[in-house]
């Protein structure tokens, strides 16, 4: 019987830390589903199809890795797809506290889910920090897989316009509420 695991997150963008977690998980599990979770409270910089295609390119040599996106509870996705393991990546102690809360909720919603925590190397930074660096013209090539870097580079002007538009909306809403 194949052991399947889910690795869910916003992955905006997918970083080398995320890639490392998947590669480490492949040493434990037969099949990994990378699930781009749709979180309405987060403003995405990549749209879902773009993220899905870029991450698929990262793992094009790995038949045992699937990439999908989903709107709903991870626990429900796992139940519907016969997945009993949820992989969560940790960079530091603060990540553990956040991830442990997610694990508790998932276990309440689906008692068959077991959460496996995998650590990234110390030099890994968050997706948000990657965007901050990228938006300010800094080199991010050491933080994202080559396929993601190539994609971001090809879409740079479009991404910057989208970010500027979001910042203007936020600024306008703050002015209107004050």
What's the short version?
Helices cover 48% and strands 17% of the residues. It is built from seven helices and five strands.
Short key terms for the protein model shown above:
178 residues; Rossmann fold; 7 helices
What can you see in these coordinates?
It is built from seven helices and five strands; from the N terminus they run βαβαβαβαβααα. The chain is an alpha/beta fold. Strands 3-2-1-4-5 form a five-stranded parallel beta sheet, with helices on both faces. Strand 4 (85-90), helix 4 and strand 5 form a beta-alpha-beta unit. Helix 2 packs antiparallel against helix 6 (146-154). The radius of gyration is 17 Å and the shape is globular. The relative contact order is 0.17.
Tell me, what is the CATH class? Alpha Beta
Uncertain runs with pLDDT below 50, 5 residues or more? none
Report the CATH superfamily: HUPs
Structural class: alpha/beta
What integer is the average pLDDT? 87
Share of helix, binned:
40-55%
Based on CA atoms alone, the radius of gyration comes out at 17 Å
